[in-house]
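If your schedule permits, I should be very grateful for your opinion on a structural question. Please examine both parts with care and let me know of anything in them that strikes you as inconsistent. The record follows directly beneath this note:
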Amino acid sequence: MMLLSSHIENLMNDSHVHVDMLTFVFFVLNFLAATQDIAVDGWAITMLKRNNVGYASTCNSVGQTAGYFFGYVLFIALESPEFCNKYLRSKPQTTGLLTLSSFLFFWGVVFMITTTLVWLFKTEKESNEHLIEDEKDHEEVEEERGVKETYKLLWHIIKLPSVKILAVFLLTCKIGFAAADAITGLKLVEEGVPKAHLALLAIPLIPLQIILPFVISKYTSGRMPMKIFMKAFPYRLVMGLEYAMLVWMTPWFKNKDGNFPSYYYMIIVVSYALHQVAVYSMFVSVMAYFARISDPSVGGTYMTLLNTICNLGGNWPTTLALWLVDYFTRKTCSIDGVGSCINTSEIEECARLGGECVTLIDGYYIEMLICTIIGVIWLSWGKTVMNQLHHGTDKQWRVKNN
């Protein structure tokens, strides 16, 4: 990050964005962050007692909330000239208080310091003594493995019947939320809501996002943490429909000067807050479930595999939703005889003739309907599958017992 900070402005130059180099750089950053994530997953299983391992999800969610606030909300606000000129400055300027390069350098230094302190002052025992004391069956402690042995272990984990069923569950459970999660924010911006204002609306939700994991963790530390997941599922589906209604009604709230009244932003905050209750209930419960079922003798490898499958289950539906929204959308030029506005050339031709593209059918609403129907169908199947997994034994998740 410190090295990237001195080159990011050139890489993101408006005249020529170096997409290939940016892809490589952020791949490296994500690879390094994922390596640390694996270590933390291992800590969650090996340091906490088995009856407290569900609280690992609480730490996970609180940390992600803090990271989202500092890495996105705070940066978007302080980097925006409009926000800084309106709220933080007496004399307007053309730039914000922060730049992307200075932001990257600062957090690069913070990463370096905190990681070094953990490395110097956090000592780990060679044996997992508390695990041996807590487990009646005396699970074997985690062994050091090479790359080849680790991938062999991952393959053995994937072949477990319970893991196969759970993988299908995780890869399909978020299809019903894909359109709401991926497109709603973009639609609000398309309707004229400033992106910086949307980012700032996350600030009132920070206390809620910090408190929620602690409240939810009381109900996810037992043997069946996924009960909270299944109970929150239909509420999240309903909130997706509420999001669609909010987008549809947004033009009604827009003033003649292009701004929106304060009560409109209050509606968004309330909607986001209700949505976050469902999101965090599902997130905390699934992380607690991973921590409970993961084989302690495998450590972070097991948790990382489950987290990877879970992340894929959230990423592929949103990616597909973004790709298909234009396919479902139908636009035509306001000038008679010009035709549709499907591709870039047709849009430019319509604008050249003095017209504008008018939306006849918005693919966002079609996707919302399709995703909701799929979500309702999935819910009945998901309940049956999770009941079967909940009533199984811990041995069905153990690598060596299978």
